[in-house]
Amino acid sequence: MHSSTPSDAQTNSSTSPYLGTAPLQAGDTVRLIAPSGPTDEESLLRAIAQLESWGLHVVVGDNVRARHPRVKYLAGTDEQRRTDLVEAWCDPDAAAVIALRGGFGAMRLLDGIDFDLMRTHALRPDGRPKLLTGSSDITALHQAWDHHLSVATLFCPMVGNDPFKNSTVVPAEVASWLFAPWGGRELGFPALDGVTGESGAEWTFWSDKRAEDQPETSTQDQGGRPLSRARTLVPGTGKGRLGGGNLSLVAAGMGSPELAGVRELRERSGPSILMLEDVEEELYRLDNLLVQLVRGGWFDSADAVVLGSWQDCAEIDEVESLVMDYLGEAGIPIVSEMGFGHDPDAPSTPLGVAVTLEAPAQGRPRMWVDGA
After folding, report:
1. Which amino acids are annotated catalytic?
2. How far apart are CA 368 and CA 340, in angstroms?
3. Which helix (H) or strand (E) holds 61?
4. Contact in structure between 129 and 123 (CB atoms under 8 Å)
5. 3-class SS at 25?
6. pLDDT by residue (tens digit) across 205-254?
7. Pairing relationship of beta strands 131-134 and 236-246 according to DSSP bridges
8. The whole model's pTM is what?
9. 278 Cβ partners below 8 Å, 6+ apart?
């Protein structure tokens, strides 16, 4: 394995051209792979059809339908899944590598990847970086891509999972991050009042203006679409590169090459805004994972912490109290319920780009991608 740190000559992902130009356009080739858990044929065909409906040319990994010979939770052997991942990223025609689903297994691939080779294939012929998309277990790949390749990635619902089948908003919301620029864009669920981002463009993707008689406490518009539940736990303003993802995966990566030297990260790369979410974890498990990150210094680079969804975990007030126990006196803004993660209507979140967070003591917090 080549685990060299990206050179100073590499493009800093916080100045990604996705800020001013869309990552994808109709006609682009995307590679669909299963780097973690297995899928079923119906989900695979639905995912292909969804991507093709956006005008994309889909190339499916040779081993997407594979199964590990011994365990049921892996889509093929490590070598099969790693081969699909490397071939997809190194395909000169590929504009993006799209993870079909999460589950478990992505971190098992990292030690066998030649990241020097991957780095030589990080750009498309037009000079724009390729895009990696996925969430949950794909957090391991997001961390690796940030550390080794220094490219921005998209933490988003995955085309082989239930939100693409059941949600009325997820498919179009993910498409809006693939086919439109990111600069100035608001993150999280839209606010009730049509909050504007840095660019001044109103964020109306999910909801129209609420009706006059719709209560301020509503978390859905009249069409049943989600609205912001975000609230400030510790007020303040933060600026930095957005990082993080699934809490379990971040904690599992502590001590790895990708998360080595986290205590010195601020000195090397500037401040971070760190986001966390998880699914199906008891409160004591979340406690154990958080204390691991605190003791390992993962939060030392943070100018702010943003919490997403905690689907089928402990009650949200218990999660918030736990986070405040560890970080409430850290002197940084903390925001809860931004929605990303395993929420059935989870919004997408770019990683490795510069963002600004405003967390007022009163009123809704806002976070947006800094403009181009």
Report:
1. 136, 277, 342
2. 14
3. none
4. yes
5. coil
6. 333 322 233 333 335 554 556 788 899 999 999 999 999 999 999 999 99
7. unpaired
8. 0.89
9. 246, 247, 248, 286, 289, 310, 313, 341, 342
